[in-house]
């Protein structure tokens, strides 16, 4: 067991740190949360900056350790969040890289890396959330196209996306998991309607997407027809496996800020609060160690992240909520002020135990797939 | 960075596990419970011969010359097997107290948590145990003495240091106090691993309503919670063993205490009425886990240290 990095890795870290120090002060101001064209331009612009500096492909081509260093350093330096690039960079991209044909990789991967195209994820439906395999959006074959009809919901960043990783049912008679197909759908195709939904944090972070005989070329199918469930499992393992690394670093930074705020506003004198922050420090330290452990494992096995991601996600999503609850205690009445960033973060942390698989579903996965308990009911 | 067990570390862990399975199996555990307060000296010498106590002693001093990570793996196995005796005190005394390293001498230690484990069976006592009063120990496998109020503090340790054989820092440069907290956390981790295993085994086999109880989500979720706490504690303990940083050690302690105590409680719950019996192994894990949470100062100390580290800006 060791926690030291190789000289090459340390060198990568030093160069990245130096570059971030130079480039971050030159970035334009962040657009407001409801300015979707502005947010899209900002997020994609940051990706382009990374691309031009040679850092864009770190998500797919670099070793897991280098990726870890990249996420750690960019987050520590306060670089922009992936934002509208989340799905493209962190799961559609890796899925196409793993499962796509050479032509598909050539078509979709470079524009993601260059910050030219954003993706969203069209998995959930009004009647298929936790029970994703019950999805009903239909795709019927019409020559060299599929015609897709149905609706998707909770589609994050749908308004900013060019492409959607879409799950459709291609064989309604097949067993539930057997009739699903994974498609790349252009968001500007005829028949696509996006209706923004307002989140409890007040912004339009996700949307409902209505699909009315939308033509999608058969060539846009990743994997075989009716083999989409397997491809989806690859996608979800990326979503649960590596997507949270930067956020753990961010939470550790916030915890330090909280302690300093408490020192300056006098709340630090409360021993109960101090102990609570101390415990949260232990939690996030351990979550960081778990990240390093999982990355080392991925490095050793060279494969797709394993079910261990569920262990991480469970602890992390609850710790994140406790972190911002503690922030409210530090802030006192200011915790009721939407102008304080921590208040918005506290609201958005409420989604962490729901999005990307609820805590209940993650526990089912841990019980059945890691502990080998009998199939639940 | 390769934060995974090396081949050698795996081999060491498996070796300790096999030794304990052979010499301290379920029957031996029951027998020990029937003779509370008595230490198996033959087993103690075997542990000494296997290098359990001399693990971190430099080879030049007749030790095995390994580090904290290896000691942590050995103590995890000890915790898993519920191995009784003043393992920690004797391990920390290797190199300072003649005979501790090879298991021919049993060492107890006073100081830290206000109690002394295994005082009556010890050949050598480190620290000041004057005025210690025997308790009716909650853990049938850990005899306890209560120290008079005010002793066990740094000042008392200072005074006592003059009267004990050997220094209070281990030969490997890691302060004993830090190593004591970490190795205790390792034992807690092992205990949590075991109670999780026991719960899962029981949930797979015990049937109610015509199916294994492990098919019920309420039971599944208890077990999943246990595993999550185990894995989080595991990485915290292993990382602290690698860095030997007191802040990492404090974090390891909090997470391992949580994993052990809550794990034992949940394991008991999964066992139902059977879990409440003297016969089931679960209560022994819970009681030992409680004893360990009092060892080497309390959780508050660790929480305060972690809080301080936040404003120091180092973490
Ligand atoms: C902020 C946010 C962003 C999202 N972004 C996207 C996105 O971009 N693309 C996308 O496709 N989806 C997205 N989602 C959807 C998300 O994946 C689903 O909300 C989630 O899987 C839960 O599904 P549901 O909302 O239908 O809830 P339900 O499945 O109806 O669950 C309701 C409650 O029942 C519980 N429950 C359900 N089934 C079980 C069971 N078997 N055992 C125990 N408890 C159960 C759940 O845990 C939950 O507490 C997003 C969600 C949020 C909150």
TrEMBL record, chain A:
SUPFAM superfamilies: Acyl-CoA dehydrogenase C-terminal domain-like (SSF47203), Acyl-CoA dehydrogenase NM domain-like (SSF56645). Pfam families: Acyl-CoA_dh_1, Acyl-CoA_dh_M, Acyl-CoA_dh_N. GO terms for molecular function: flavin adenine dinucleotide binding; oxidoreductase activity, acting on the CH-CH group of donors. Belongs to the acyl-CoA dehydrogenase family. Residues 6-116 form the Acyl-CoA dehydrogenase/oxidase N-terminal domain. It comes from Streptomyces cadmiisoli. This is Acyl-CoA dehydrogenase. Its cofactor is FAD. Keywords: FAD, Flavoprotein, Oxidoreductase. InterPro entries: Acyl-CoA_Oxase/DH_mid-dom (IPR006091), Acyl-CoA_Oxase/DH_mid-dom_sf (IPR046373), AcylCo_DH-like_C (IPR036250), AcylCo_DH/oxidase_C (IPR009075), AcylCoA_DH/ox_N (IPR013786), AcylCoA_DH/ox_N_sf (IPR037069), AcylCoA_DH/oxidase_NM_dom_sf (IPR009100), Mycobact_Acyl-CoA_DH (IPR052161). Residues 226-371 form the Acyl-CoA dehydrogenase/oxidase C-terminal domain. Residues 120-214 form the Acyl-CoA oxidase/dehydrogenase middle domain. GO terms for cellular component: plasma membrane. It comes from the Bacteria.
TrEMBL record, chain B:
Keywords: FAD, Flavoprotein, Oxidoreductase. It holds the Pfam family Acyl-CoA_dh_1. The keyword Flavoprotein applies. GO terms for molecular function: acyl-CoA dehydrogenase activity; flavin adenine dinucleotide binding. InterPro entries: AcylCo_DH-like_C (IPR036250), AcylCo_DH/oxidase_C (IPR009075), AcylCoA_DH/ox_N (IPR013786), AcylCoA_DH/ox_N_sf (IPR037069), AcylCoA_DH/oxidase_NM_dom_sf (IPR009100). It comes from the Bacteria. Its cofactor is FAD. Residues 6-96 form the Acyl-CoA dehydrogenase/oxidase N-terminal domain. SUPFAM superfamilies: Acyl-CoA dehydrogenase C-terminal domain-like (SSF47203), Acyl-CoA dehydrogenase NM domain-like (SSF56645). This is Acyl-CoA dehydrogenase. It comes from Streptomyces cadmiisoli. The lineage of its organism: Bacteria, Bacillati, Actinomycetota, Actinomycetes, Kitasatosporales.
